[in-house]
Amino acid sequence: MPSHLEIAVGQYSDKGRKETNQDFYGVCIPKEPQLSSKGVAIALADGISSSDVSQIASETAVRSFLEDYFCTSDAWSVRKSAQRVLMAINSWLYAQTQKSQYRYDKDRGYVCTLSGMVIKSTIAHIFHVGDARIYRFRDKALEQLTNDHRFWVSQDQSYLSRALGINPQVEIDYLSRPV
């Protein structure tokens, strides 16, 4: 076994049936000493299809998470740092909607789902809001680590019950797993 963590990154996204791809993702692998003190940050956001500006929300959420996480205090835990950053992102996105023409229709505002991970030392710290999933692939099997934040109205109809930017406050799922 190697004495240090090695990470290989591959990324792909497709717009699917929509006109615009509302996904955004990224990875930040800093140089030392930040690599040891803060770890590696990874994020994926997906805009909501009812909004024409949610691709802006997705890109803003990922870029801000990857940049701002590394600006938090080294005295803070990974959990505290990431949650504070995500709460700030949520506040900014919500404010953008409130200042826009979409203020009375939050399903058209600056809203996105986000799943993020910080790998520090031997622990993967997972942060999740919405339905962009994180899986673990081990022993040739996929294990879903995050739960979708969806409210099912019927067997065929559901809506997001949690997302960044949809409300002034956000509840963020957190879990940690050994790598």
From TrEMBL:
Residues 8-179 form the PPM-type phosphatase domain. Transmembrane segments: none annotated. SMART domains: PP2Cc. Pfam families: PP2C_2. InterPro entries: PPM-type-like_dom_sf, PPM-type_phosphatase-like_dom. This is PPM-type phosphatase domain-containing protein. It comes from Methylocaldum szegediense.
